[in-house]
Amino acid sequence: FTQEDTMSQWASPAGAWRLGGGGWIWRRDEFFRDCEFGFPLPDQIQAGEIRTVLSGDGKDPRRGYCLKVSLSGRKPLACGLSRNEKPVASRDGIEWEPGDTLAVQRDGRLVRVLLADRVVLGYCDADPLTGTKVGFRTAGIPTDLDKLTKPRYGTTKQNPVEHRQARRGFLNALGNFILHEVLKQKAPAVYQ
Length: 192
Known about the structure:
Layout: E1 17-19, E2 25-27, E3 35-40, E4 48-56, E5 65-71, E6 77-83, E7 86-94, E8 101-107, E9 110-115, E10 118-124, E11 133-139, E12 149-153, H1 173-186
Antiparallel strand pairs: 1-2, 2-11, 3-8, 3-12, 4-5, 4-11, 5-6, 6-7, 8-9, 9-10
């Protein structure tokens, strides 16, 4: 069964992704409206770059909300967020630990970057993008598709999480509502 070429990746995390051009991998599902995608930072100290796309078109990695994370050994990391190639937010000097989960989240008009469940970067879009694809690429950092957190649907109380995939996400619907309310109080600049 696993040797047959059309079923070799059936029901595996790697089978949920397809290879695109330029080393990009794209999630096969479509994610309408709000979603969140996360990945663990490398356990071993190394230099490289990680890029993700939310609300993309599945073909061009420059379309959508693009997060670029630069790692240089154990030095603080740098993040940059762009919207259809236009830089909208950036931050340098972010302290991190190997194994921390970095996530990019779209919640209505808000796009946030979370490191170990704390907001490190945010952007409020007056005209949110409508793309439905999630993409991922690394340079200089080995990637294990089994360790990527499956993108998940919905993060707001108006659009609660729908568990359409195997349990492997960050938080349940109640946890998301609580996180959303806490972030409003602790990071009001992100909500302006």
